[in-house]
Amino acid sequence: MTSQFVLTFGREALTLLLMIAMPVLGVVMAVGLLVSIFQAVTQVHEATLAFVPKLLAALAVFGVVGPWMLSTLVDFIRRTIESIPSVVG
């Protein structure tokens, strides 16, 4: 196992992490911004009003994008496991 392989593997893992996390984080951030604007306009500062819409948005994104996320992760794990013999030997 060379240092180049380790760096390449780490870069691929971080890229995959960002690619998979971005849809959920983006939607939750957008919903959080909209809820914050609504709270500022109406001056209603309730904690559940900020939490529940973000939770529902995250669940909706997982429902829509979840199969893609899972297949991408399974493909990465499969490639990683299949590369073990070439790394060890």
TrEMBL record:
Q: Which UniProt keywords apply?
A: Bacterial flagellum, Cell membrane, Cell projection, Cilium, Flagellum, Membrane, Transmembrane, Transmembrane helix
Going by the entry's taxonomy, the superkingdom of the source organism is recorded as Bacteria
Pfam families the record matches: Bac_export_3 (PF01313)
Q: How does it sit in the membrane?
A: Multi-pass membrane protein
**What InterPro entries does the record tag this protein with?**
Bac_export_3 (IPR002191), FliQ (IPR006305)
Q: What subcellular locations does the record give?
A: Cell membrane; Bacterial flagellum basal body
Question: Which residues span the membrane?
Answer: 12-38, 50-70
Q: Which NCBIfam families match?
A: fliQ
Q: What is the stated purpose of this protein? A: Role in flagellar biosynthesis.
Q: Which family does it belong to?
A: Belongs to the FliQ/MopD/SpaQ family.
The protein here is known as Flagellar biosynthetic protein FliQ
